[in-house]
Amino acid sequence: MTFNLGVDTGGTYTDAVILRGEEEVVASAKALTTRHDLADGIKEAVQSALAQAEIDPASVGLASLSTTLATNALVEDQGARVALIAIGFAENDLERAGLSKALKNDPVLLLRGGHNHAGTEAAPLDAEALDAFLNTLDPGVTAIAVAARFATRNPAHEIAVAEKVAEIAGLPVTTSHTLSAKLNGPKRALTAVLNARLVGMIDRLIGRAQDALLDLSVTAPLMVVRGDGALMTASEAQLRPIETILSGPAASVVGAHWLTGADTALVSDIGGTTTDIALVRNGRPAIDPDGAQVGSFRTMVEAVAMRTSGLGGDSQVHLLDKGLSGGVRLGPKRVLPVSLMASLDPDSVLPVLEQQARSETPGDHDGRFVRRVGGAMAGHGLQPLEAQLMERIGSGVRPVSMVVQKRMESSALTRLIDRGLVQVSGITPSDAAHVLGLLNAWDGAAAHLALTSLARRRRGDGEVLAPSAEALAQIIIDQLTRQTVDTLLEAAFTEEGERFEESPHALARHELLQAGLSGHSGFIALQARLNVDVVGLGASAPTYYPAVGERLGCRMLLPKHAGVANAIGAVVGRITLRRSGTITSPSDGYYRVHLEAGPEDFEDADAALDRLETALWEDAFNAVKKAGAIGIQVSAHRDVRTAEVEGRTMFIEAEIAVEANGRPRVAV
Fold first, then answer.
1. pLDDT digit string (tens) for 385-431?
2. Cβ neighbour number for residue 582 with a 10 Å cutoff
3. What is the pTM of this model?
4. Of 2, 70, 242, 290, which is the most exposed, with the fewest CB atoms less than 10 Å away?
5. Cα–Cα distance measured from residue 668 to residue 665, given in angstroms and rounded to the nearest whole number
């Protein structure tokens, strides 16, 4: 008997699940995600699951990994420094598709070159400028993204630049044409930049995951879940980590269908950092035709149609002290719950919390602590002020009030956090759940002390935020319910299409809808409810989601093993690859097939279509087979666009999409 092992590495927890084939969950386990070395958390979770299942590690025939780390990094605006080489683009192109925001202050080279719509060279590649840029590259850059104008029609310049990067800089390089076959150069460039930023992070995760499994004598091949719920090999994920954005959420959708059998439902997966909402329609996850959207970035990565918001059990609680009402707001950034930080280092945390609770005047940084995360990037390329803060933090846990002594130092600390060098703790919904007795995982006394201090803070009208820690905890939980309800309603209105004039965001928060959910009855009686089931996933779903279902008036499905749905979805998916290509007509009677090796011209349209379909079919089939798939099925779809001109049918353009999929081969 062979078994399948699924692992999900999230922002807070690492989950492991063992299935007998694809039929039955025989064991599941959780461990804290260990940011300093991800292998520790993976090893602990897998070891616990193996012990529960009482099986020989050698009987594991397939191991698969899903992760929210890439998603969280983009939501929290983290990642390593990169450089962009943009070929044939103008400076104002950087303002499109959010490219400037993604680049931050990272170096950019606008290089002469690129091709036109037909795949013909628009200008020679400026090799001299490229050499000069690479030879003077900032040493803090860890990877390079390359995007050329119309590279999907002819990738020759991207390939040439990538070869030169490898020769001179020796850095990982991402070419945009390998990530998408679609037009829209700035959007492809954005996708390439984000991929380059994630390369080091995902490479370390996969490498350490493989090390951890080998230490436990699990020798099965490792697969990784893509953002569309399909599986890819670990080596592919290391080259194209951008395809793992929404990996964890996509796995959860696949797991939700496997756990509940729901044919049509909204799936809401609450983790430590994000809440991810997707639609299962006719038993299959819906795919976003416009590319995955994560936070403010719209990529060209095919992924499950997912609404990701920075709302989770570990979302930072922000005090709203402007205006006369006040209150709290959650997210979008994640912090380590103060109750968890106290359980990890009680001697450094509890005495400080007790002192803050006794103080007559609450401070802005009460309940907040920092510690170094370390890793390969620690101390590399730091500004003087950042280095000074790292020295103050030292090797232990420190209160933020001791680390940040001047206003300008707050920005420096934020930069360290964004780069993943420092981890910060603060008050979260998880701490509120401890205070209310809904959760008992970490140090509840620490949570109570921290909320006591925050409750004494003043609102805009001069009144205290809450009369007690318990009252504040309920305010926080109610706010989590409110924000979750808004996000689910927004997803539902999006599925309604253009039936209503206002945006889904506005409709979800409209006062008439909110009154209808409350069953308003005055001169006008209003009733509203969500007319679809919701599958609640995540370890904290049973804690938070009953109130969400009650507010929405819908059936809330909370399946057994909901807390490890991501890990389940990781091992019940299929290996799937999609390839697409384009045929254009540069002149009447000529048909140009745009291939990886360069354009090929034909005088017959059918011959051109057959050439492209054959190339895509072979590429997809061979790639899926190489990934370890068996029982491979390949399908192709042709979209030929023509126009009638003076009674004659004219060929405009054609696109062919090929999909190959199969079951992962299980090692025996």
1. 888 899 899 889 999 999 998 888 888 898 888 878 899 999 999 99
2. 20
3. 0.72
4. 290
5. 9
